[in-house]
Amino acid sequence: MSAVRLIEGQSTARGRKVAVVAARFNEFIVASLLKGAEAAWARHGGVLEDLLVVRVPGAFELPVAARKLAASGRYDAVVALGCVIRGGTPHFEYVAGECAGGLQRTALETLVPVSFGVLTVETVEQAIERAATGQGDKGGEAMEAALEMADVFAQLGS
């Protein structure tokens, strides 16, 4: 019996062009996510000067900026970072849902991997836990997912 052919990506930043789109809203959380993403980029062989970071007002604006970057053809992947904390109004559902859907559509329509590093949480405490660069490190995880998908796409060819 012959073995199946397996394509599996590696999280490597060497030779990759990646852009990060980071929301300013909930800055104290997003700053930690960004720190984690930058650390993962460096840990996987990236040079910080080669990493583009674009700041936007909030999570609702992430998809359009990610779309512009992905459609440019200059990036192997885009990492979106933000934080939406549930409040007492339906605002959370609109912002979180449109952000997630917009980022997914961007990836599907441009065929550039877009990593979802947007926290959608109930409380500030949950956000702090997930954004921590130690155990939570969702920013680092988002960067690693983007690098792995960029490698998968490279192996699949154009």
Descriptive terms for the model:
5 helices; Rossmann fold; globular; 4-stranded parallel beta sheet; alpha/beta; 158 residues
User: Strand share of the residues?
Assistant: 15-25%
Order of helices and strands: EHEHEHEHH
Please count the helical segments.
Answer: 5
Contiguous low-pLDDT stretches (5 residues minimum) are none
By CATH, the architecture is named 3-Layer(aba) Sandwich
Distance between the termini: 30 Å
Mean pLDDT: 94
Overall CATH class: Alpha Beta
The CATH topology turns out to be: Rossmann fold
Q: Name the CATH homologous superfamily.
A: Lumazine/riboflavin synthase
Helix content: 40-55%
Shape: globular
What can you tell me about this protein's structure?
There is one protein chain. With 158 residues, the chain is of the alpha/beta class. The protein has one domain (18-156): Rossmann fold (3-Layer(aba) Sandwich). It has helices spanning 27-43, 62-71, 91-110, 124-131, 138-156; strands spanning 18-23, 52-56, 77-85, 114-121. Strands 2-1-3-4 form a four-stranded parallel sheet, with helices on both faces. α1 links the parallel β1 and β2 (52-56). The longest helix has 20 residues, at 91-110. The mean pLDDT is 94.
Short structural description:
The protein has helices at residues 27-43, 62-71, 91-110, 124-131, 138-156, and strands at residues 18-23, 52-56, 77-85, 114-121.
